[in-house]
UniProtKB/TrEMBL annotation:
Organism of derivation: Pseudohalocynthiibacter aestuariivivens
Ranges of residues in domain Mandelate racemase/muconate lactonizing enzyme C-terminal: 142-237
Residues passing through the membrane, by range: none
Highest taxon, organism lineage: Bacteria
Protein name per Swiss-Prot or TrEMBL: Mandelate racemase/muconate lactonizing enzyme family protein
Length: 367
């Protein structure tokens, strides 16, 4: 089997609600890159990457130039066994992991289709029927956030990510965490996420004010050292996100003791190949994992769900149904949340079949 063509689309995805985050960050409509890899066998593989603004050194318009640079290696290559081909790409083009992520996902889709297996069978084997979801709550008034949490709770959600810091008011952040905690009662997981936009002082003030409650913190500050200091000052567990992007960063966070949990995002690591290696390291280190991606629709959601389903449940904190937060859906038949949980798609490969007509005209065809 050989790769014959790569087709790329830009698809605007609009969030059902604008996400307000710390340090002036927002997320509303973001362009996703959808990619199809065709082969001479008739099989094709799908990939997706959706960098969001203000989050990582990645942007949608950077994907195509990187793919054009890698195309001479990809066209005519054997796509089976993604890690070998991805290693060649790494030697050719250093970095640009977000652009490589979309290719890597498509290669795994192709490999699983060629094997006539669902993707999770190649990522370790299915360990669970379905997986817990979290619900992300935009940073608005404390009362409105508590109401959103209550509504999500009524649908079966038991994990809540509370965005903090949008108004640079640490006392309002205390109220946000307190009111969401009260709205969902004891037991469900509640964690406050600053998206690394807080100072050590403000994050410490918030954390110490809620230290008597069952709360987890998520990436308050832009350095490991500051996050570690906030954890030490409050005694609250810490989830890492933005700073976790490769095995070295995972080892560093574990060494400092600030990684009780960690977000493993496909495009941040460079696709399924690298994220699977990170998953295996976290299993060894004992860190709980949220397996997800930065943003996106049904393709990247399917990829992360397959990896989540192939992960030991006791080490899996949650997954994210990214496609449930945006429109349009790329594959209307793809999985949706049910009673706070979600299962990977059925069928071979990723198990999703995007509507090519709905994607519109391609932005590029490489052959």
């Amino acid at each position: 089997m050989r790769i014959t063509r790569i087709t790329l689309w830009h698809v605007p995805l609009t969030s059902h609600t604008t996400y307000f985050m710390s340090d002036g960050k927002t997320c509303d409509t973001v362009e996703s890159v959808v990619l199809r890899v065709d082969t001479d066998s008739g099989l094709c593989g799908w990939g997706e990457v959706c960098p969001i603004p203000h989050y990582l050194p990645a942007y949608t318009c950077g994907v195509l130039p990187a793919l054009e640079d890698m195309a001479p290696i990809l066209i005519g290559a054997d796509p089976i066994g993604p890690e070998a081909l991805m290693a060649r790409l790494d030697r050719h083009l250093h970095g640009h992991v977000y652009a490589k992520s979309v290719i890597d996902i498509a290669l795994w889709d192709l490999t699983a289709k060629a094997a006539n297996l669902p993707l999770h069978a190649l990522l370790g084997g299915r360990c669970t029927t379905d997986m817990p979801l979290y619900h992300s709550i935009t940073c608005i008034s404390p009362g409105d956030m508590a109401e959103i949490a209550s509504e999500a709770f009524s649908t079966g959600i038991r994990q809540f990510q509370v965005k903090l810091g949008a108004d640079a008011n640490w006392e309002a952040d205390v109220a946000r965490l307190t009111q969401v905690r009260e709205a969902v009662g004891e037991g469900p997981l509640v964690y406050g996420d600053w998206n690394c936009g807080a100072t050590r002082l403000d994050a410490t003030r918030v954390a110490r004010a809620v230290a008597h409650m069952d709360i987890m913190l998520e990436q308050p500050c832009p350095t490991f050292e500051d996050c570690t200091a906030v954890r030490a000052a409050s005694g609250l567990p810490m989830k890492m996100d933005e700073l976790a992007h490769d095995t070295a960063s995972l080892l560093r966070a574990h060494q400092l003791g600030c990684m009780d949990a960690v977000a493993l995002k496909l495009s941040k690591f460079g696709g399924l190949s690298a994220t699977r290696r990170a998953r295996d390291l976290c299993l060894y280190l004992g860190a709980k994992m949220c397996i997800e991606d930065t943003w996106g629709s049904d393709i990247t959601t399917a990829a992360l769900l397959h990896l989540g389903a192939a992960t030991e449940p006791k080490n899996l904190l949650n997954v994210c149904d990214l496609s449930g937060y945006v429109s349009p859906r790329l594959d209307p038949s793809a999985p949706v949340r049910a009673n706070g949980r979600i299962a990977p798609p059925e069928g071979v490969g990723l198990g999703v079949n995007p509507d090519v007509v709905a994607l519109g005209g391609p932005a590029a065809i490489l052959d």
